Amino acid sequence: MRLLEVRDLEAGYGDVQVLKSVSMHVNEGEVVAVFGSNGSGKSTFLKVLAGILKPWGGSIKYMDQHIEDLSPEDRVRRGIALASEGRRLFLGMTVEENLILGAWTRKDRVKESLEKVYSYFPELYRKRKDLAGDLSGGQQQMLSIGRALMSGPKLLMIDELSLGLAPAVVERLAGILLRIREEEGISMIVVEQEVSLALEISDRAYVFDLGEIVDEGRSEDLLKRDTIRKTYLSVL
Amino acid sequence: MDTVLQLLVESLFLGTFYAFMSLGFSLTWGVLNIINLAYGSYIILGAYLAYTLHIYLGLDPVLSLPLSFTGGFLLGLFFQRFLMNRVMNLEPFMVLILTFGLDIFIANALNLIFRADIRSIDVPYAERSHLLGPLIITEVKALVFVLSLILTALVYLLLHRTWTGRAIRAVALDREGARTVGVSPEKIFLITSGIGTGIALASGNLYGVLQGFTPFDGGMLTVKAFLVSIVGGLGRVESAVAGGLFLGVLEVFTGFYLGEGWKFFASLIVMFLFLILRPRGLLGGKYYGET
Ligand SMILES: Nc1ncnc2c1ncn2[C@@H]1O[C@H](COP(=O)(O)OP(=O)(O)OP(=O)(O)O)[C@@H](O)[C@H]1O
Ligand SMILES: [Mg+2]
Predict the structure, then answer these.
(1) Closest chain B residue to A144 measured between Cα atoms?
(2) ipTM above 0.90?
């Protein structure tokens, strides 16, 4: 079953086009990785899916409905949540206030959502009264993902999962994500620069370059492919 | 000693009023990044509204306070929707010009209707005072103090205990972050502008009971709200309280020891000192979101 189906998506800033005819899809329950060089349009792509940036053209179908014209709020309400690049936390608020705001579109289910997020990220529970700005990088990433989970998403999009984090932290986060996917049946799009990690946690992957998808396939196949190994995994 | 005690109580009363009066100014500054030069004229507008309702309907300014707030709220919505939204994202300079123009417009409109004579709202309890030990407590000042305290606490609760309030703080801290969780910053701008202007007009009711006013007193009040916001540091209800109390002490003590004429001048000097030496204010907070 298709959860998300993107066709010929174009987008940019001002007159500068960034995305050129991007087509991709996400199946239900699937984890899809997106990687590619800096400035290739990965974050732009997620912003368009989240409704923060208006596309110039193309179509986005989610659960068999066109959502191009929906506001970010309506998209979150329907189950599309974004953990943005740079995390975009409310640093001057407490951890718990950040999480509560994540439930903006489901105000009646704050308590159970909090319990769920705390069960995946126990340290967020311990730090719930601390300011988000006082957390370590890893904890902030957990908070960013936790805040996205508070809306009860069907499609969780994470931009730059591992950026700036210690390997041990990344490994834990990856483990938790796989648990979340298993237990909640949430589909994910994970933008990840660390290609070996991206391919390890995903079922399929898309490779972006200069605003286009230049390669795609099952992650295990991509791992074996020479071009990928040479360009992105620095294996000779 | 008794004199100092008396002055401290006066400072507390006046300072708490200043804190409430300035909340709307610092809120719109912190959340929308707008320095509203018409803010003081909004306050004066509230005072004239209360004055008119008192003269023609015999309505006590305390009772017309919700009306002023509501009127201000609608005015703020209107102003944001039809004027501010158009210039907000252009140039900060345009915003200043626009609010400056609005300030002059309101002052002159009031002058046309009411003329420049000093008006005052003559409530029956205007002159009453009570002895409390060594202290003289003026009923009007105590009333304004208590109401300011309650209203300031309400604003605090609004910002910290309600969904709208959390969203307002979120937008102040990170607009794009707010957008990703589904909060629409544009809607929050409208609401914040409404609340800010509502506070201005409501505080005008209290100002009108405290002292006489003319259509052209708005500029001075804008400067005071500005001072409170700078001294306390932009951003939290607590900041406005700190700044308000500071201004209260400053005015009451300079007024008593140096003379009434020094009050405003001293405020200006302190404002410049703060801008130069401690631009982030006493508490150092920056935005409304900060806990
Ligand atoms: N707000 C913006 N305004 C104008 N141009 C932008 C903006 N954001 C991104 N761009 C440009 O769009 C292009 C794609 O940027 P984007 O952030 O989507 O790339 P990315 O693949 O996420 O890169 P990175 O790996 O560095 O995160 C870049 O050339 C960038 O300079
Ligand atoms: Mg990016």
Answers:
(1) B177
(2) yes
